[in-house]
């Protein structure tokens, strides 16, 4: 009953609406019912006790409450009216796929079982990125293109751009976009025209459709439009669109993106005109 009440029911939307969905039908039963949750929760600590206790010690050293409070205060100070609302879950799960993030604006998860990241960087730089998603996505409820790959692109690009602005120049653009290296950023810049030209036909497709572009966004899997791309194409492309919007409309105008339909953001950014001039 402890597992059911404290682990499953306390975070049921996360298990049912996120983990049970992203890991496929063959794994959904591990997360979307009491019995499945009990089976792996009874085993995971017994089999990974030393590792899990070490990870918790690492987490406690980070002063998570202070980092999160600072991130929230920084968002309020910079953006103002849009306030994120979500339940935060810190978890150990048997399948890795969500390091930090969630499946909608009501949830925020940090998976300590996954060690393929620097915990301090994820907390200090990942929190601002995810907080922006939690605040921006509710504003898209009436956007005519809310289900398109363009919205995913602007959503991810804005989260990266907000993170860049949040740190006030203390981190580079490439670091703000998926913690890229300078060399990785340079690859995107060298291939900018081809990236946009090949991506454009898919931007107004459904974000749920398995297109060569959409598989570069979110949880989609499949053939990528750019196999050689070092990171996720739509994060970088969204960042560039918003960067051009601010260049065209003046300092601070990037905040318009929280209010505008994504198609209007794209049109007013002047980014396509820039691409056509190359």
UniProtKB/TrEMBL annotation:
Protein keywords: Hydrolase, Protease
Gene Ontology biological process terms from the UniProt entry: proteolysis
Example of a GO MF term: peptidase activity
InterPro entries noted in UniProt: GldB-like
Pfam family, any one: GldB_lipo
Protein name, per record: DUF2268 domain-containing putative Zn-dependent protease
């Amino acid at each position: 009953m402890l597992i059911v009440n404290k682990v499953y029911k306390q975070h049921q939307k996360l298990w049912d609406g996120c983990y049970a969905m992203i890991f496929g039908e063959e794994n959904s039963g591990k997360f979307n019912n009491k019995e499945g949750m009990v089976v792996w929760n009874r085993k995971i600590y017994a089999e990974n006790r030393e590792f899990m206790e070490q990870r918790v010690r690492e987490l406690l050293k980070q002063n998570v409450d202070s980092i999160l409070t600072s991130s929230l205060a920084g968002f309020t100070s910079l953006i103002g009216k849009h306030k994120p609302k979500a339940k935060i879950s810190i978890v150990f799960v048997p399948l890795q796929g969500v390091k930090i993030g969630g499946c909608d604006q009501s949830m925020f998860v940090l998976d300590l079982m996954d060690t393929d990241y620097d915990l301090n960087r994820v907390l200090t730089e990942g929190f601002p990125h995810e907080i922006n998603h939690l605040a921006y996505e509710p504003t898209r409820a009436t956007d005519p293109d809310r289900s398109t790959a363009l919205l995913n692109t602007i959503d991810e690009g804005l989260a990266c751009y907000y993170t860049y602005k949040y740190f006030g120049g203390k981190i580079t653009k490439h670091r703000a976009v998926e913690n890229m290296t300078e060399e990785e950023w340079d690859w995107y810049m060298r291939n900018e025209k081809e990236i946009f030209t090949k991506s454009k036909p898919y931007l107004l497709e459904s974000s749920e459709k398995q297109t060569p572009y959409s598989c570069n966004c979110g949880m989609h899997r499949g053939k990528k439009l750019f196999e050689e791309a070092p990171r996720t194409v739509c994060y970088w492309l969204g960042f560039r669109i918003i960067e051009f919007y601010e260049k065209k409309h003046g300092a601070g105008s990037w905040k318009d993106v929280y209010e505008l339909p994504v198609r209007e953001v794209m049109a007013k950014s002047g980014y396509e005109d820039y691409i056509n001039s190359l």
